[in-house]
Specification:
The complex is a heterodimer. Chain A is mostly helical. Helix content of chain A is 77%, strand content 0%. Chain B has a 5-stranded mixed sheet with strand order 1-2-3-5-4. In chain B, strand 1, helix 5 and strand 2 form a beta-alpha-beta unit. The chains are: A mainly alpha, B alpha+beta. At the A-B interface, helix 6, helix 7, helix 8 and helix 10 of A face helix 1 of B.
Chain lengths: 219, 266
């Protein structure tokens, strides 16, 4: 896989974040609270990506990784708030404890375990697994509704679809990310293909978020 | 060697990522297909429910029209005819008539007017039996049964408490239901014995109907029930009631239950 193609996919992934942002801003008047939180998440993703890319261009790679580590925690909390807003059953003490525990783990991991200047794969894996549970739980709740509606009209369906595809597709990558990143260039840039695939999944995630922000949810 | 193990690691990760991607697509696809099936079932159930409600409404309207037609016929054929005859007789009363003829004409007119009054009372009783208001549902049913018990071929009985604490509109509804059941039975059941058992528990009234006639299957209540049965269902719907056909070895066994509000609640 050529470096140019990988670069193209990488920039396309950043560019794809603009689509849900524009859709959300155009449809802003019709957005409910859950969709507004999603819009904040998308805006945070765009800012993090631009910031990280800028730092990468200036060869400040360590700081580039710090941006992603912070973004992981912000995205985790925003996505949890989105699911709690959408599913009343999740608004309880147990989920609050889990949310606080993962936040604390993230801080401890950042300072003591994997340190600030390396990719915090432990936190990525923990948050990915929590998102997958939330998405599957949310699908189950949709099936247990008394009154069924057209799926394509439901923002949470699109969010679930994006979350399941992205976070299950990248789970193994995040688990072994530090080993992948330490691979020498003699591996024919194949290791970069892995990150390119991550970018492709990100484009799918952003497309799903776009559909979620386009829907007029029941208030 | 290190390079080959690095390539293997990357390949494992790539295959793993693609595998998980396909698995997640499978999960989402399964969910979509399953939810669509549930949605289709729900839409079918809603359609059936709407059709059922429309059928009940149609039965109610048909029943009302039939009743109006019957009243119109009674008014025209009985009251109209009697009043026409009275008009003719009274029209023939002239000052030139002798006393005997005059007395005869007046007497005939009075007889016809009495007969007219009798017919009006009968029509009025059919519309709303006064015994229902004065003595209650069970007494009204007993009165209805006594009028129907004219033939030796069918014995009709009723057991129940002397007093039921239910609102008057539901009392009338239940009376009509019993009337409908009785008419149905006398027309179609070919029964030698018909029995009504009435009781009240709390705010619910239970009517147990049994006969030893040709019978009616439980499926008839759910399927193409005749106008009479649909009419009964329609009335029970208003009282949040239900009717259940119990499969009997011989004849028909129906159980009717209402959730009648007590008058003391008002």
């Amino acid at each position: 896989m050529s470096t140019e193609l990988i670069e193209f996919i990488r920039y396309s992934s950043t560019g794809s974040i603009l689509i849900p942002l524009v859709v959300g801003l155009v449809n802003y008047r019709n957005l409910v609270k859950m969709q507004k939180l999603l819009l904040f998440l998308v805006a945070a993703a765009l800012l993090a990506d631009i910031f990280a890319l800028t730092l990468y261009k200036f060869k400040l790679i360590s700081y580039n990784i710090v941006v992603y580590n912070f973004y992981t925690l912000i995205a985790f909390n925003l996505l949890w708030f989105i699911y709690k807003e959408s599913i009343p059953k999740l608004r309880n003490l147990a989920t609050l404890i889990i949310q606080i525990a993962i936040n604390l783990f993230g801080v401890v991991n950042f300072i003591f375990i994997e340190k600030w200047n390396s990719f915090n794969s432990n936190l990525m894996v923990a948050t990915s697994i929590s998102f997958l549970f939330l998405a599957v739980f949310s699908f189950r709740q949709i099936l247990q509704q008394i009154q069924y509606t057209r799926l394509e009209k439901s923002p949470i369906f699109w969010i679930n679809t994006g979350v399941i595809i992205y976070y299950s597709g990248t789970l193994i990558l995040f688990l072994l990310s530090n080993q992948i990143n330490s691979i020498s260039k003699s591996a024919n840039n194949l290791h970069l293909a892995v990150w390119a695939l991550n970018s492709v999944f990100n484009i799918i995630l952003m497309s799903a978020y776009s559909f979620a922000l386009w829907q007029k949810a029941a208030k | 060697m290190a390079e080959s193990s690095e390539i293997t690691l990357v390949e494992v990760v790539l295959v793993g990522m693609l595998g998980m991607f396909l698995l997640s697509l499978g999960v989402v696809s399964f969910f979509i297909v399953y939810q669509r099936r549930l949605l289709r079932q729900q839409e079918q159930n809603q359609k059936m429910q709407e059709e059922y409600q429309q059928n009940l409404l149609r039965a109610s309207v048909e029943s009302q029209e039939k009743e109006r037609h019957r009243i119109a016929e009674s008014l025209h054929d009985e009251i109209g005819a009697l009043l026409t005859t009275t008009t003719l007789h009274l029209g023939q009363i002239k000052p030139s008539l002798n006393e005997e003829t005059l007395k005869a004409r007046v007497g005939t007119s009075v007889d016809i007017i009495s007969e007219t009054l009798q017919s009006v009372r009968q029509i009025s009783h059919d519309l709303k039996p006064p015994v229902l208001e004065t003595l209650g549902l069970v007494a009204a049913i007993r009165s209805l049964i006594s009028k129907a018990n004219v033939s030796d071929e069918t014995e009709i009985t009723c057991e129940g408490p002397d007093e039921l604490i239910i609102p008057s509109d539901e009392s009338l509804g239940l009376y009509r239901i019993v009337q409908e059941l009785l008419q149905n039975a006398l027309k179609h059941a070919q029964a030698s014995q018909i029995h009504f058992a009435i009781r009240q528990t709390g705010s619910s009234v239970f009517i147990d109907y049994t006969d030893d006639g040709v019978g009616m299957k439980a499926t008839q209540l759910n399927g193409d029930a005749g106008l009479g049965l649909r009419n009964i269902e329609s009335r029970l719907n208003l009282m949040e009631g239900q009717i259940e056909a119990v499969d009997a070895a011989k004849g028909t066994h129906l159980k009717i239950k209402t959730h009648a509000k007590t008058e003391t609640d008002d």
